[in-house]
Design goal:
Number of strands: 0
Strand content: under 5%
Structural class: mainly alpha
Number of domains: 1
Distance between the termini: 76 Å
Largest sheet: none
Helix content: over 70%
Shape: globular
């Protein structure tokens, strides 16, 4: 008798149904997230906070709510096969590459590249060191370091794939990014005005410091059009460096963190096996988008890239919904207060260093 015949017919018929229902639950919650993301700013048109809140907040909140409902009803474990967090995240990051025009970065903002490299390297290493002093798990250290030094949620997602972090650690890191980014929307423009910073310096400070694109846009808009232009370029530059950091993290964890004492040194084959292949898709989509924009008109190119960005948003919404559905409170209790202290301290260091770099690199810089 074959192994397939040995499985009861009822079991075979339902083996795909529960995961399918899980995917359906994710899609329904994702649609609700998208509706909130689009409509809340209109419902509260006079609120800057409503405009600044990003979809990860709604997605994780609805995912957590669904988590509670499914747990109480006893359905969560049955539907868990449909919570395809890894697939949604990787697809979303590949599509993120399409929004990064390498030509614009190289030709329009040389200072942004210098600032991005110095800021990311320094803040990442400082956060990694501080996390070690506080005794954090190495994977959580990697996520927090990437999030605070590069570009928030997207960087944490990429780092999570490189170091094989737990989903709870990713949810924790993403939540802290959002919590710290929201007040920055109002605090940094106020400080920029108090310090008498030029719009360009203020924009570089905002773009290099605030960890989410929507929050950068909101803060830059408060300061002015020139500040927004510089802030956007600086933020895009830092986004483009995600791939380099992921490669470094993959190598570090393969050759140092997870290498057992006395074990043979891993070869390049092991590095390739562990390397998150979706990063190649991220780079490829960026190169293709950069080339494509040189072959079509500005309006046509903007429309096509807009479609890719919309798809990216959808996949990341589904990813964060899935994170909420898979979230377990016990893991956060184990983390405790130390990650918050590390992230807060690193954020202060990032604020000060970004201000210094912006002042040095963008004084006298003008948007043309």
């Amino acid at each position: 008798m074959s192994s397939e015949a040995a499985v009861p017919a009822t079991a075979r018929s339902t083996s795909w149904q529960w995961p399918a229902l899980g995917v359906l639950a994710v899609l329904v919650l994702g649609a609700a997230t998208r509706a909130l993301d689009k409509n809340v700013p209109e419902w509260f048109s006079g609120s800057d906070l409503a405009k600044a809140i990003e979809f990860p907040i709604y997605a994780i909140a609805l995912g957590l709510l669904g988590n509670v409902v499914l747990t109480v009803t006893g359905l969560r474990d049955r539907l868990a096969g449909g919570f395809r967090t890894e697939f949604f995240i990787k697809t979303g990051l590949v599509l993120l590459g399409a929004s990064i025009n390498l030509k614009v970065i190289v030709t329009a903002a040389g200072p942004a590249i210098v600032q991005g490299i110095v800021l990311i390297s320094t803040v990442f290493l400082f956060t990694w060191w501080l996390g070690g002093r506080f005794g954090l798990d190495d994977r959580l250290r990697a996520l927090l370091s990437a999030a605070v030094s590069i570009c928030g949620v997207s960087a944490a997602i990429a780092a999570a794939g490189a170091v094989q972090a737990k989903r709870e650690q990713l949810a924790y890191s993403a939540s802290m990014v959002i919590v710290f980014a929201l007040p920055s929307i109002f605090i940094l423009p106020a400080l920029a005005s108090a310090l008498g910073l030029s719009p360009e310096v203020a924009g570089a400070w905002i773009g290099g410091n605030i960890d989410t694109t929507a929050a950068v846009t909101a803060a830059g808009t408060i300061v002015g059009e020139n500040a927004l232009a510089v802030a956007t370029i600086v933020k895009v530059t830092q986004n483009a460096l995600i791939g380099i950091v992921v490669v470094a993290l993959t190598a570090w964890f393969a050759f140092r963190i997870e290498r057992r004492p006395g074990a043979e040194r891993p070869g390049l084959g092991e590095l390739w096996r562990r390397f998150p292949k979706f990063v190649l898709g991220f780079v490829a989509s960026s190169v293709i988008a950069t080339w494509y924009l040189t072959t079509v008109g500005a309006d046509e190119g903007k429309a096509v890239i807009g479609v890719a960005n919309d798809l990216r948003t959808w996949f990341l919404i589904l990813a964060f919904v899935s994170i909420g559905l898979e979230f377990r409170v016990a893991s956060l209790k184990e983390a405790g207060w130390r990650p918050i202290a590390v992230f807060a301290t690193a954020t202060v260091a990032n604020v000060l260093l970004a201000l210094g770099l912006a002042t040095v690199l963008f004084s006298g810089f003008t948007v043309t």
